[in-house]
Amino acid sequence: MKKFIYMIFGMLLACIFILPVSYCNAENTATSEDSNSKVYDLQQNAFKYYQINHKGALGIPISCLCSESEVGDIRKYTVEPKYSESINGNRIEITISQVNVTGSTDNFSSILKDNKYIKDIKLDKLDNNTAKVDIETSGKIDIKVNLVKRRYSSLGDNKYEFTTFIDVTFEEKVKDNSKIIIIDPGHGGSELGTTANFTYEKQLNLDISKRIKENLIKSGYRIYITRDDDSNVGLLNRTDPANLLNADLFFSVHNNSLPLDVNMQCVYMFRGTTVLYNSTAPKPGREFASILMREVSSIVKTNTYPLQDRQSLAVLSSAWCPAVLMETIALTDDGDAKMMMHRINSQKVADASLRAVNKYFNT
Ligand SMILES: [Zn+2]
User: Fold this and answer.
1) Strand, coil or helix: 68
2) CA 350 – CA 358 distance, rounded (Å)
3) How far, in Å, is the centroid of ligand 1 from the Cα of 16?
4) What is the pLDDT of residues 212-236, one digit of tens each?
5) Which of 46, 75, 184, 246 has a CA that sits 20 to 30 A from residue 163's CA?
6) For residue 332, how far is its CA from the centre of ligand 1 (angstroms)?
């Protein structure tokens, strides 16, 4: 009888300890194949840094230039960095394994310039496939490390660039709950946008955006603007600050054009204001889009036409927060263009935008 009890007890122990271990192993071997052996790129000249009131964000880019045959479904593929972090007072060490450090120089001096939170930053290669990022911070701040996935971009020839940022955020200990908004003046530099009625769209976009920025800052919002001069900004670079700073709203400012071959009835219908959003985005911007269109058209007295659901526009599909793109007026329409020649109307658009933002966050 005693032997029998020992046998049952022994079997029970085996069930408790051995079986779960073998299940775990089975799971590990199933997932270890591809993602665990992949060596990604760490481009030392592609680090990102963004700063607003009371907050900064450093993006360490871990990327892969892969073909569709290597990754399968490109919409589902994700770069998964292998890293460990240790935060010790004002030092953060992030050790990243299975990366190949690429790029001849780093851009750390531009990151450190006027940086409120990072005193120094170093990148060391520990061995062929391991790198360490050392960050020295200043002041008493809260530090968090997260992963932020960037939308893939096509490089042609069936090649794609996938990036996941190791996102290190620095927040002052004062509690700042004010909303974070990214203002994005469309085009810039060699990208002129629409040119009509003696106006470059890129210039008008910048003028309106700067006025919106001033208005929002005065009202206590935390603002990052993707360009504040006539420079080129890549499409995904426009939404990186929104994603790395974990913004509440992405607001792109444009002015529209109409194809030359549409009939007069269409020209008449499609002048004025509309706002674009993406209904398939993780957080669609439709609600803000409709408030914004109403406010702008009622203050500037422009014609409106229905909101546009655009699922393939890069800026609307790469932001993780609600994103909209405002076509303020149709620059190709003589009446619209003449009206916007008067800067008082750019200011009115900015005032209407502030009202829309206030309404959106207060409802
Ligand atoms: Zn445009």
Assistant:
1) helix
2) 12
3) 64
4) 999 999 999 999 999 999 999 999 9
5) 184
6) 12
Contact 135, 168 (CB under 8 A): yes
- Sign, CA torsion 212/215/219/221: positive
**Residue 92: band (very low, low, confident or very high) from pLDDT cuts 50, 70, 90:** very high
Which residue type, as a one-letter code, is found at position 356?
Answer: A
**Whether residues 99 and 164 fall in one domain:** yes
Helices (H), 38-80: 68-71
Ligand 1 centre to CA of 334 (Å) is 17
Separation of 205 CA from ligand 1 center, angstroms? 8
pLDDT of residue 2: 55
> Residue 339: which CATH number?
3.40.630.40
Q: What confidence tens digit (pLDDT) does each residue in 23-63 have?
A: 333 333 333 445 567 899 999 999 999 999 999 999 999 99
Does 187 map to a domain? yes
Supply the CATH number for residue 159's domain: 2.60.40.3500
Angstrom CA distances, 90 to 49, 165, 170, stand at 18, 21, 11
The C-alpha angle with vertex 242 and arms to 103 and 120, in degrees rounded to 5, equals 45
For 99-108, the pLDDT digits (tens) are 999 987 888 9
**Residue 164 C-alpha to ligand 1 middle, in angstroms?**
28
User: For residue 186, how far is its CA from the centre of ligand 1 (angstroms)?
Assistant: 6
The answer to whether residues 47 and 92 belong to one domain is yes
* 140 CA → ligand 1 middle, Å: 42
Only one residue has tokens 């890293």, namely 83
